């Protein structure tokens, strides 16, 4: 039991930091709420879809920007798609890079676009790693016989967590 | 709630809005999954689709299988706005658009194309919870206008149900409804109740729902006789006893508008649609031989309101062409309403009036359509074949046999083909063609397109038509709604020729 509560605390701290650092936003919370007994792996499934889609989009972007004559409309459309899918799971930092990326596309600024692509890759990999870490923690908690704390309560009590260290589930 | 995802389920008014049959269209797999889950949580019956074409096929297959459609704006195979118009025209279902892009211009376009709502991603559950209001609203309006007892019953049932539920919370709502909003809805229901009862007793003009079948009949009839002949003839041909001339006339309008919109969208997106190298839209205004499409874009700004598209044409004068072949021109003031349907079909904007007057003046001389047209036509056909395929997907549902649709590139090519034709023929063509179309099925669709292309002189009647007719443009061409007022035959030919008489 001690192991479980420890894991849970870890989970809460980790999640809170992700929200605070802007890796995830409220949309992720919404996803958590959608998960239920009929669909216990909903969040993981959705996030996996996002990973798949993102990798495809990043490849498409790289290809599009490598063309001799860059089709900025095409690039913009990929970024737009990426913006949409990253917003679906609440990957806020990724979404923000997309916004800047689109501006460079409009200006047909190749340099800016290439830099954004790098940034996008970076943010994507970061959020992917963070989420994978989160899922691992969840698995550990479940395996130890505990339940995963709900995001919402974690977020709202983020400020009080540090002081009380209590679990709010 | 019935989970008839694969079956043809019928709406269950007794538990409304639970069981609302929603079709979600989005090419983003992540969002599709999330939306499906959210809608299911609202107790709706969800069907998902990753492509617009698929969605249209589904909708056509299950004619009464859905209550509402939610679609993303950006999709790879078809513009979300086009899908929107198709649905509005063929199935008359409420459509909600979604996008991660909330720019005012986009939202405006959505509304113009007929969306009943525009949601910004990321979408929340609470936004989806309330989509039933659009279905309800439509039903209310339908019942008000028609003598349909079925609709009335359904509405009453819905109302009763919601009233019963008002105290307990909404059936579909997981408890998110605040007392305040609940109250609001109750009073709204009460309001409807009183109004509806009063209205039901006074029978208003019956509102026709243009089902796919009906629309197909309409298209066939239009193909046969063309737009110029008038709704009366179309009505006769359709042989639907309860349908009135007014119904046909207004549907015709919508159809034409739709085609025009398609054209406009094609131009804008420049993704599909015939791009005939020889035709430069920008020159249209000068020569009048340019595809009308161009003129349309420049001259017309259309705003769609509910079911009607009001086209404001700054260059208001349109010279009407005498159908009889006389080049007499009348000025046509823009006053027509064009539905997006016309635009969708990619018909060069015969429906947009703007510069037609210019056409008329240069009519006979500008194009040597006779030969050129044919060439262009064929060229377009080939070129547009692939483009057309997409439209084929759209149009086959409209009742055209598959084989026919393939030859319809006309919609796509309309630009080059139609443009010039309009200018050339206008009068003689239109009338001639229409007559011919009556005799020859193939010709009709192209009233708009075929006729005009072939003759180089105003008096040339239908010479070019035959060429076109073979193209089978007609079928598709007629699929749109044309707004034009009868008995202004002028407008028709003008429209056909790419003039949109407004």
Explain what this protein looks like in three dimensions.
The complex is a heterodimer of chains A (169) and B (502). Chain A has 169 residues and is an all-alpha fold. Chain A has helices spanning 2-20, 26-34, 42-66, 72-89, 92-107, 110-143, 151-156, 158-164. In chain A, α3 runs antiparallel to α4 (72-89), α3 (42-66) runs antiparallel to α6 and α4 runs antiparallel to α5 (92-107). The radius of gyration of chain A is 18 Å and the shape is elongated. Mean pLDDT of chain A is 88; it is low at 157-169. Helix content of chain B is 53%, strand content 8%. In chain B, α6 runs antiparallel to α7 (149-168). In chain B, the strands form 3 sheets. In chain B, strands 2-1-3-4-5 form a 5-stranded parallel sheet, sandwiched between helices. In chain B, strands 6-7 form a two-stranded antiparallel sheet. Chain B is globular and about 50 Å long. In chain B, α3 links the parallel β3 and β4. With 502 residues, chain B is an alpha/beta fold. Chain B has helices spanning 29-41, 52-61, 80-91, 104-112, 125-129, 132-145, 149-168, 179-201, 212-225, 231-238, 245-269, 281-287, 292-299, 341-344, 356-366, 369-396, 402-406, 414-439, 450-454, 463-471, 473-477, 491-496; strands spanning 21-25, 45-49, 68-72, 95-99, 117-120, 301-305, 308-312, 318-321, 329-332. Chain A binds chain B through residues 27, 30-31, 33-34, 39, 42, 45-46, 49-50, 52-53, 77, 80-81, 83-85, 87-90, and chain B through 27-31, 33-34, 37-38, 41, 72, 74, 99-101, 121-122, 124-125.
């Amino acid at each position: 039991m001690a192991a479980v509560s420890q894991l849970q605390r870890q989970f809460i701290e980790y999640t809170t930091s992700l929200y605070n650092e802007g890796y995830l936003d409220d949309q992720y919370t919404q996803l958590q709420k959608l998960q239920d007994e009929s669909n216990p792996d909903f969040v993981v499934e959705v996030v996996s879809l996002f990973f798949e889609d993102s990798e495809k989009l990043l490849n498409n972007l790289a290809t599009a920007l490598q063309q001799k004559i860059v089709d900025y409309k095409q690039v913009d459309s990929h970024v737009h798609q990426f913006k949409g899918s990253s917003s679906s799971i609440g990957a806020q930092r990724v979404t923000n890079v997309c916004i800047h990326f689109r501006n460079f596309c409009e200006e047909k600024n190749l340099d800016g676009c290439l830099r954004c692509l790098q940034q996008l890759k970076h943010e994507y990999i970061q959020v992917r790693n963070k989420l994978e870490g989160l899922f691992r923690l969840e698995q550990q908690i479940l395996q130890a016989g505990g339940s995963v704390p709900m995001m919402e309560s974690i977020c709202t009590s983020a400020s009080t967590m540090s002081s009380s260290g209590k679990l709010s589930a | 709630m019935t989970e008839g995802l694969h079956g043809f389920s019928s709406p269950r008014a007794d538990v409304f809005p639970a069981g609302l049959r929603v079709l979600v269209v989005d090419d983003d797999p992540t969002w599709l999954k999330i939306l499906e889950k959210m809608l299911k949580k609202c107790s709706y019956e969800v069907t998902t689709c990753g492509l617009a074409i698929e969605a249209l096929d589904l909708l056509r297959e299950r004619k009464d299988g859905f209550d509402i459609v939610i679609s993303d704006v950006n999709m790879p195979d078809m513009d979300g706005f086009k899908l929107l118009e198709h649905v509005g025209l063929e199935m008359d279902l409420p459509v909600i658009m979604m996008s991660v892009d909330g720019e005012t211009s986009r939202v405006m376009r959505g509304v113009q194309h007929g969306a009943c709502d525009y949601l910004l991603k990321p979408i929340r559950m609470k936004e989806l919870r309330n989509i039933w209001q659009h279905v309800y609203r439509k039903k209310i309006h339908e019942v008000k206008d028609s003598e349909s007892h079925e609709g009335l019953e359904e509405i009453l049932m819905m109302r009763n149900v919601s009233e019963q539920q008002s105290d307990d919370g909404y059936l579909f709502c997981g408890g998110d409804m605040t007392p305040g909003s609940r109250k609001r809805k109750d009073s709204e229901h009460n309001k409807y109740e009183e109004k509806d009862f009063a209205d039901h007793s006074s029978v208003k003009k019956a509102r026709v729902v243009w089902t796919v079948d009906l629309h197909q009949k309409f298209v066939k009839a239009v193909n046969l006789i063309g737009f110029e002949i008038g709704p009366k003839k179309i009505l006769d041909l359709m042989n639907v006893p309860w349908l009135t001339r007014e119904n046909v006339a207004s549907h015709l309008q919508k159809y034409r508008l739709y085609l025009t919109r398609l054209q406009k969208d094609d131009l804008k997106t420049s993704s599909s649609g015939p791009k005939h190298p020889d035709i430069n839209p920008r020159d249209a205004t000068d020569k009048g031989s340019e595809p009308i499409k161009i003129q349309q874009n420049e001259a017309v700004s259309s705003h769609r309101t509910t079911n009607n598209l009001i086209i404001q044409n700054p260059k208001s004068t349109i010279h009407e062409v005498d159908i009889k072949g006389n080049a007499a021109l009348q000025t046509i003031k823009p006053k027509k309403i064009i539905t997006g349907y016309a635009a969708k079909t990619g018909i060069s904007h015969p429906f947009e009036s703007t510069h037609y007057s210019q056409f008329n003046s240069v009519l006979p001389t500008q194009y040597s359509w006779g030969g050129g047209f044919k060439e262009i036509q064929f060229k377009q056909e080939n070129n547009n074949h692939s483009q057309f395929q997409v439209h084929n997907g759209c149009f086959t549902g409209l009742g055209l046999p598959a084989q026919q649709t393939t030859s319809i590139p006309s919609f796509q090519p309309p630009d080059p083909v139609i443009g010039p034709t309009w200018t050339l023929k206008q009068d003689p063509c239109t009338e001639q063609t229409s007559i011919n179309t009556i005799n020859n099925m193939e010709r009709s669709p192209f009233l708009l397109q075929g006729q005009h292309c072939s003759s180089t002189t105003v008096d040339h009647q239908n010479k070019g038509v035959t060429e076109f007719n073979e193209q089978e443009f007609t079928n598709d061409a007629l699929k749109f709604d044309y707004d034009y007022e009868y008995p202004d035959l002028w407008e028709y030919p003008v429209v056909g020729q790419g003039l949109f008489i407004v």
